[in-house]
Amino acid sequence: MGQIVAGVLAPHPPHLVYGENPEQNEPKSECGWENLRWAYERLRKSLSELDYDTLIVHSPHWRTQIGTHFLGVEEFKSLSVDPIFPNLFRYHYDLKVDVPLAESICKNAAHEGMLTKMMKNPDFRVDYGTIVSCHMTNPLWDKKIVGISSNGASKYFSMDVLQEEMKQLGRATKKAIEESDKKVVLLASHSLSHRHFTTESELPEDMSKEHIEHHGQYIWDMKMIDLMKAGDSRALIDFLPDFTEQTNAETDAGGLSWMMEAMGMPTSPATVHGYGTVIGTGNAVVEWRS
Ligand SMILES: [Fe+2]
């Protein structure tokens, strides 16, 4: 029987890949955002203790206006350019998809009553949220991935509607994994507080310019992290509608809600590998073990 071996809050600012200088990324940096890059180093060390086959990533930047979609082609290879930061992220990706597992989650989600679709266009350009979270978690790209889109339920309706949908998606994900023979790591690809600067410093990696956008955002981030460290995922999810409204957070896409549901609302303390800001947004790399 397959199982979820870990779940990770895996933020995706393109700045982190820019700071790492992998060969896939065209722009090169001197340094930058070490708090978060070293947090990802600690995550990778921790995950290296685990035997797993597949990364399943839920991304706010693959936004499907109707329903929830799943990457459905065995290989995607192209150039991903960040729409806001083309000066930082022009990344040549070549990724492999666990199509049978994606199809099974898609089928189980439809059975839960969700509107679902497999993305079968081989020329589809994979979003940078998916790519950055996967790269920072596994830069070798030697694991297959399942990519899940996010929809606009929180905007069209409300966070409460979104949270209900993410319960369905979480249950479907868990069931599909258990029906498979795969060991899986889940990635919720998003930041915490998401109010950000509107101008970029001349040298993007000038860390003398980097700080939280607003102290109130920092207080919210610390509140959420305290709940993670306390293992109180139920309260964490219950706070999300208020947190999302107050901090403009990417939790409005549902990644964290989906992951906590799939993991059965963990009660054991999460490991916070690190926290840092990127153009004023709050980001934490956090790991839950099953
Ligand atoms: Fe984002």
Describe the overall structure:
The protein has 290 residues and is α/β, with parallel strands linked by helices. It has one domain (3-289): Protocatechuate 4,5-dioxygenase, Chain B, CATH 3.40.830. It has 9 helices and 10 strands. The chain has helices at 14-20, 34-47, 99-111, 128-137, 153-156, 159-179, 215-230, 233-247, 255-262; strands spanning 3-9, 54-64, 68-71, 75-81, 90-96, 116-119, 144-151, 183-188, 271-278, 281-289. The strands form 3 sheets. A 6-stranded mixed beta sheet has the order 7-2-8-1-10-9, sandwiched between helices. A two-stranded parallel ribbon has the order 3-6. The chain has a two-stranded antiparallel ribbon with strand order 4-5. Strand 9 and strand 10 form a beta hairpin. Helix 6 (159-179) packs across helix 9 (255-262) and helix 7 runs antiparallel to helix 8 (233-247). It starts with a strand and ends with a strand. The relative contact order is 0.23. The mean pLDDT is 97. The chain binds fe (ii) ion (FE2). Fe (ii) ion binds at residues 12, 60-61, 129, 250.
